[in-house]
Amino acid sequence: MFKSISRLLIGRIATNIADSLFYITILWYFKIIFHSPMILSLVFIADSTIDMCAFIFGPLIDRVYIKNLLKYVTVGQIILSIVASILFHFKNWKTLTLVLLLLTYILSTIGSTLIYPAEEKILPSIVNKNKLTKVNSLFQVTYRILDLFLDALATVIVTYFSFNKAMVISAFVFTIALGFYAKLYLPRNLIVSEKDHDYFTGKYLQYLLKGWYVLKNEGRILLLIIPLAVTNLFYGIASVGMPYFSSQYLTKSAISYGGLELFSSIGGLLGSLIVSKIDTLKPNLEQLIVICLGLAGISVVLEALVANYIPWLILIFALSSAFWISIMNINFEVLIQESFSPRILGRIETINSSIINCMIPIGSFLGGLIVQHFGAGIAILLQGLAEVLTAIFYLIYLR
């Protein structure tokens, strides 16, 4: 199965590159052309709303042959990148361009919502259980190494080249991903038989609810993810503020935002490397969340407080925050993969995503208002305080 693991990894790398370029291009186009935090917040609202509704796609991920899903979704993303590159030429029709670009972004993000859980579903079927943590860490380390130059490269492309050229590059990289997904060889237990097709008719809702019932019976996991939904309200606020925060305290160009993302990626990479060198901390997951989330929150608070005095420390605290969150996330992902059958993982992963992200659209909307009236620094500070308070909640209730 080594070939399948490597092909899946390379395909996902290509998808990540194309997704990142697509996202940053749209984000910076809205920021430069419209000069409005409220319009910029539409990108974050769209993104987080799709994450919130991810549970709807769970049965689809579980019931179709996952290789075909990867291929067809990637073809759609290639087409959407080409459409977006064309739309950038309609500079005199700003409102129409805004609506159509937002629509292409929504459709591409739905595609990513289908592709990303596929990895979590495939890995337990092609990797031995005792190697699952190391393989997950390998994937995460690879993504983090990629991120070290990816976000910076994407912002350089957007800064020094046209928006439509950036989208053409995105379409090309999606095509590379398609080539590797087409060569995947997956085990028979991921192939859906003809008799299962009735789940796409009247039983779809029943099949969807089954995923919720299975998750609800795992009370330990459910208790861990619900408070994170509240925390993510403030993550949504901070997401809108971050492009303005970086421009205000670092540099005015898109490179400042890319630099902040670069240091966050370094932190995530270091966290992934730490996890890959030790066994999963599953038995102490509650304590791990308290420590990691608390330290991440303190880092974000300091990020906001030092901005006026020592701006370059913003990068260090962004790195620190991502480091602790990375350690927490990888171990939590392994816990989910080991706790549920691969045949239901599509639903479990998407339901988890929906619960955790359900408050982000509201946060994104509030973020536009907060940044517009109070400044980006407050938006960042609120995120850090929320993470610290959530860690304290875990400390009290998960003893």
From TrEMBL:
Keywords: Cell membrane, Membrane, Transmembrane, Transmembrane helix
Pfam families: MFS_1
CDD domains membership: MFS_MefA_like
Record-level GO cellular component terms: plasma membrane
Gene3D superfamilies: MFS general substrate transporter like domains
Primary location recorded for the protein, binned into one broad class: membrane
Membrane topology: Multi-pass membrane protein
Subcellular location: Cell membrane
TM region positions: 9-30, 36-57, 69-90, 96-116, 137-161, 167-186, 221-242, 254-276, 288-306, 312-330, 351-371, 377-397
Protein name, as recorded: MFS transporter
Organism name: Lactobacillus amylovorus subsp. animalium
